[in-house]
What we know:
The protein is 37% helix and 23% strand. It is α/β, with parallel strands linked by helices and 279 residues long. The protein has a six-stranded mixed β-sheet with strand order 6-7-8-3-9-10, sandwiched between helices. The protein is globular.
Amino acid sequence: MNQAIVVQDVYKKFGKPGRPFWAQVIRPKEQTNGQKPAVVAVDHVSFAVPAGEIFGVLGPNGSGKSTLIRLIATLLLPDSGSVQVFGFDAVRQAMQVQRQINRVSVEASFFKKLSPMENLLYGARLYGMDGRQTRRQVVEILTRLGLEERVIYQPMEEMSRGMQQKVAIARALLSRPRLLLLDEPTTGLDPRSKREVQAVVRELNREHGTTILLTTHDMLEAEGLCDRIAIIDSGKVVALDTPQALKRLISANGHQATLEDVFLELTGKQLIKEEERQA
Length: 279
């Protein structure tokens, strides 16, 4: 089977390493000079994603989801292990990997004084796309995502965060990547906008065979979109299977288990903090 992603024993740590044992013995009260302790973000993770699959990653804040996506996108280098995208090594063949992918993250950035059309045309030129044809595609994608055509020509700074996120998704879709990395793409969107984005993701996967890796805080989104889901906690994959198989892992006191039941059972944590629910 053709594999879109192969992550093999990947390990990534941030921050300074801890003091050696002998230093702790000789000077146990030595100050750290404000340095933060090392944090293991991805802890010997392995999995493979076949071409054409929608693969979900669930985990609490700080679990390593976004770090994992950045490693696949060649934005970070693993400390050990390997990442391959359609057979290309993400470290040694980063340029080839970058040609296969596009990425949408929560912190999408734009030229805020420019319109969605101008931003997307700029991005399209980086991919060598034809201007006239691209204009038609920009209008088609953005209206498909629920933006009114008049908004397409207004400055980005006048748009809500949710609308800006739709433009970020459109920018990623425009190049029709073989692999689309979606890092919490519907965060901040209203329910209708979420459904519009989810419909476009399904369409891209079904009609163009695009492989999609999705991180999300929305359990219904994960269950509705993903062929398989990995649950990650403290940098480790604690479960990986289809949504139905994951729900069969636990008993739910006489009622059918949900993905949230599975998540709580395996991690003992809420997917999002209570204050974020109220925000």
